What we know:
The complex is a heterodimer.
Chain A: E1 11-14, H1 19-34, E2 40-44, E3 52-53, E4 56-59, H2 62-69, E5 73-76, H3 80-92, E6 97-100, H4 107-126, E7 133-135, E8 141-144, E9 148-151, E10 160-167, H5 170-182, E11 187-192, H6 203-211, E12 218-224, H7 229-240, E13 245-250, H8 274-283, E14 287-288, H9 295-304
Parallel strand pairs in A: 1-2, 1-5, 2-4, 5-6, 6-7, 10-11, 10-12, 12-13, 13-14
Antiparallel strand pairs in A: 3-4, 8-9, 8-11
Chain B: H1 5-15, E1 22-25, H2 28-40, E2 46-50, E3 63-66, H3 69-79, E4 83-84, E5 94-95, E6 99-103, E7 107-118, E8 123-129, H4 136-142, E9 148-152, H5 160-170, H6 182-199, E10 202-213, E11 220-223, E12 227-230, H7 239-242, H8 252-259, E13 263-266, E14 271-275, H9 278-290, E15 297-300, H10 307-319, E16 325-332, H11 337-351, E17 357-363, H12 366-375, E18 380-382, H13 386-399
Parallel strand pairs in B: 14-16, 16-17, 17-18
Antiparallel strand pairs in B: 1-6, 2-3, 2-6, 4-5, 7-8, 7-10, 8-9, 10-11, 10-12, 13-15
Helix pairs in contact in B: 2-3, 5-6, 10-11, 11-12
Amino acid sequence: MAVLLNKDSRIICQGITGKTGLFHAVGCHAYGKEINGAGVVGGVTPGRGGQVVEGFPVWNSVSEAVAKEGANVSMIFVPPFGAADAILEAIDAGVELVVCITEGIPVLDMLAVKEFLAKTNVRRKSEGKAIVRLIGPNCPGIITPGQAKVGIMPGYIHKVGTVGIVSRSGTLTYEAVHQTSTLGMGQSTCIGIGGDPVKGMEFIDALELFNGDAQTESVIMIGEIGGTAEEEAAAWIKKNMKKPVVGFIAGITAPPGRRMGHAGAIISGGSGTAESKMKAMEAAGIAVSPTPAEMGITLQKRLKG
Amino acid sequence: MKIHEYQAKELFRNAGVAVPKGIAAFSVKEAVDAASALHQEGIESYVVKAQIHAGGRGKGGGVKLAKTRADVETLAKQILGMTLITHQTGPEGKLVKRLYIEEANPPKKEMYLSLILDRDRSCISLLASAEGGMEIEELAVNEPEKILTLPIDPTTGWQAFHSRKLAGFLGLSLDPKSPGKLFGQIHNFMEKLYAFFIAKDCSILEINPLAIVGEGESQRLVALDGKINFDDNALKRHPDVAQLQDPDEEDAAELEAAKFDLNFISLYGNIGCMVNGAGLAMATMDIIKHYGGDPANFLDVGGGATADKVREAFKIITKDKKVKAIFVNIFGGIMKCDTIAEGVIAATKEVGLKVPLIVRLEGTNVDKGREMLEKSGLQIISAKSMADGAQKAVQAMKEGL
């Protein structure tokens, strides 16, 4: 089962003629092909339609890729000032899963994207269509081990299994993956929701999906300082979650008022602290991992009761 | 990015947002000239304001009233070059190198106003209070009912009904015939301010206090202070804003790191850290603390760093005299472990290695990276996990080389 991404996904890459876009399109394709899963069917670069790069057909627009190849997943590697426009184009074309890897998009650009996405989904719901999901920006992407990879994560550390992972941090996701793979649990789907303050999917969206997924038996949720998404997720978990959840929060030593690498990782006006998030998690019955090195073991202990 | 009050007011003035008259000064002579120029415009008394990027300047003695131009000279001599300590500067304080000479405006009423990028609601929100001059964070905790929060729908933008809500909350008359027509003033003020926020990609814009000055028909609404934070992601499309950065307000190591596109933040501890990924970099600081140490810095070399970038990052850490041990913690994804090893070896050849170096490598090309470090002849303490590395770093920091 897993969520959002599977071996039948039709993946394209927006920005495929750029160096980074092409590098990762090749990587995702290779991952999919090696496991008999989903590869990358092509890419989009406006003005470069008709060309072929590394064997991938290039189209001028996302709509064209949807019409010709039935594209339903787009991975975006467009530079920051053009990335919001690329997301809007993918949403408009009806791609159901839009994954934006780009870091450094101005936040005001993302406000417009969020609004357009919300309006589009209201319309799609009324038409009986599936809603469009946006992952990111500023994220590693999403992977369903054994089926497909859309993003920049190293595929080989993953293992097909039962743990759903959702995280605001890329490399901390890799830590959680590595730990659960080593302990033999493996992963159902790993979703990196990204480090920006205004983004697509939030923790709750991912948790809802994991809650309803038969393959997912437990969840690791990795948060960090800034905002209140972890507190909201904890409240949601307490009310709705049927599966065990392990949590970790990065940034207990972060000084207030400083942007810790991620645009969204900042304690401002006394809110968004790691302490507040850990407290909310504990109050919701989430097992909080004391260090980033113990996420896997904390989950194992939790499962053994 | 933050800017000074005088720069914020210049931007406000150009955007049509009401501010008092004022001129920036970098020397005592310039301060006296500024006062004379203001005097020419009929101004009789002045405020001499220290320009540093920290709040609480008034309490720290950095904002003083001058009744005459001679007073301006005396105060400028006093404030320029002083080390101003406020609750936001830390105990070491900040050296004052710039002044702002402004017309004195005894406020009849002081209010609070800010526009913020509201991440929880995905819009711009207004915060306002009829009580100005206070710390909004304190007010939010102690008397939240005194704060108005108004989320602005991005499609409508700022509308007159928003202004009516705001004026009502602040106790300003909506009557178009009221003395001074304050409603018209605040509506104009807010329309301009909201447009400015969007035009320049701000993330926080705070006016504390917003004041009513003057009497009767000549009442005016003006921003007596102005603080702006800009969205760093958008700076490249606002070169006019980017050039307002004051290097004196930034940490030297952080400026150096920024040249190489490294995410670096100086901290107070003594274990230097080099990590890939912002989340892992924060978590590495946390795990050092967990095992009884203190991180000297936050450093994310990024996902696609070259050996050159790693070398520069390593040099920046070793330059810090507080550092008694260095912990390199890498989970290679796109970043390859051999690239890290290459950069570390190159840096140590260049600047030497005077403190213990603890390295934990995992992920892409890990074997190649470990082999390179082993063969380099460097005295490296290798760690088999992040927890192992953090513990060894804390121990090595205590014992030295």
